[in-house]
Design brief:
alpha/beta, Spore Coat Polysaccharide Biosynthesis Protein SpsA, Chain A, seven-stranded mixed β-sheet
């Protein structure tokens, strides 16, 4: 595990930028993620915070996160006593975030956090800046599922987003505060953007780099996860219609 970066600089009550990371069984990745996030955050906005949501991890993730929290006041943790699901973890993190701009990404190191700067360049003009993986490095079954899913979302909601589930997005606080997030699973990205578009918020898309996962396991393509997402998809469609 990489050693935590200490920081004694006091935080303002309302940070300019919040970095949110849902975590479930990422002990091999979380140390490197937090070190990089602290370095990037310091460069982009001197007054920033990191919110880590430990979604009932069963490995040493909680222990590693606590070590970083103790060493650096910019790192805060939200803890779920059991695994509630990706959507539930993201919702908890977004609610806890205090920044005027709120960014979230996954803890699996598949994204280059330095490219957050590319999103922030457009944050003054748009309510949401969403990354899309270019190219996407996931195995081909996940890419096929994503393509079918994206087509369905476009048909049902008219939402023209190239990579709906890309976990690399920046929101203005007003968007987070005005949207009620119900999803507890993989549908959460689609729900947030569909509700935001329905409310008239402007979405801009930016290409971001993507890497294959080196440690840990992906869970988004499991049948149970897909079935839950489909159920939530049609539930939201009926609500917004």
């Amino acid at each position: 595990m990489s050693q935590p970066l200490a920081d004694s600089i006091p935080l303002l009550e309302t940070p300019g930028l919040s970095l949110v990371f849902p975590v479930f069984d990422e002990e091999a990745n979380i140390g490197s993620l937090l070190r990089t996030a602290l370095e990037i955050g310091t460069r982009l906005d001197p007054n920033f915070e990191i919110v880590v949501v430990d979604d009932g991890s069963r490995d040493r993730s909680a222990e590693i996160i606590d070590t970083w929290c103790a060493a650096n006041a910019r790192v805060r943790v939200v803890r779920h006593p059991s695994n509630l699901g990706y959507g539930a973890a993201l919702r908890s993190g977004l609610r806890e975030a205090r920044g005027e701009l709120v960014f979230f990404s996954d803890a699996d190191l598949q994204f280059d956090l330095a490219e957050l700067e590319k999103l922030l360049e457009h944050a003054d003009e748009f309510d949401i800046v969403a990354g899309y993986r270019s190219p996407r490095r996931d195995p081909w079954p996940r890419r096929i599922i994503a393509r079918v899913w994206g087509l369905g979302v476009r048909v049902l909601f008219g939402l023209r987003v190239r990579d709906i589930d890309c976990a690399f997005k920046v929101f203005h606080r007003r968007v987070i505060e005005s949207i009620e997030i119900a999803s507890i699973g993989a549908f959460v990205n689609t729900e947030i953007l569909a509700r935001a578009a329905s409310s008239g918020y402007r979405i801009h898309q930016v290409p971001v780099s993507h890497r294959r996962r080196r440690h840990g396991q992906q869970s988004g393509a499991r049948p149970r996860v897909i079935v839950r997402a489909v159920v939530e998809l049609f539930t939201l469609y009926r609500e917004l219609r």
